[in-house]
Amino acid sequence: MNTPRSGGTEAPRIDRRARLIGAASALFSERAYDEVTTTEIAERAGVAYGLIAHHFTNKRGLYLATIHAAAEDLRALQAVPPGGDVPADRLRNAIDRHIEYMDHHAAGFLAVMRAGSGSDPEVHAIVEDLRWQGAAHILRALGVDGPVHPLLRAAMRGWVGYLDELIIDHIHHHDVDRAHLVRLAADALVATLRTAYFLTPGIGVDPAAIDLLAGPA
Questions:
Q1: Is 44 part of a structural domain of the chain?
Q2: Which keywords has UniProt assigned to this entry (predicted)?
């Protein structure tokens, strides 16, 4: 039970673990893993240094916690169906929501992107799985539930990378209207899928379903 303050109100509970994850996410998004110290993480979080060992064992444990936290938040977002009456609207709404979320959680997103290019196999696996889940949601909406054709897999991975770079540019500059970014990403996906189907009609996607993603010009 919390100890009440004078006047009958309770002292607010401070989630020091969450503070450490937030501070670490911000620092890991700014600099490489080896350049960030546990001392400065604790200082930025405003908590005692020993709490890092208490909650995470060491810096790598804290680093993994930041990646897991970002991944879980994004999975929760992806699990919520986007609004829209037709596939094109749902696609654009999903992309818009994704960009907005990443913009509001820029530190965590940039930390995940930096981690994905690193050499830690466990971290790399988390990031790769997270990035593929977004593509998998789109493929399921297109009726692809079984094994993904290699060409379709390559096409979707390429598109996810394109979307990530659009978001990174947006976070750094904020000088392009978000609606334009959404249109770029949606049209790029449609063009990518159409090209993949042209190259190999047996990729498992109905061309009519691809056309429904295009929407009005």
A1: no
A2: DNA-binding, Transcription, Transcription regulation
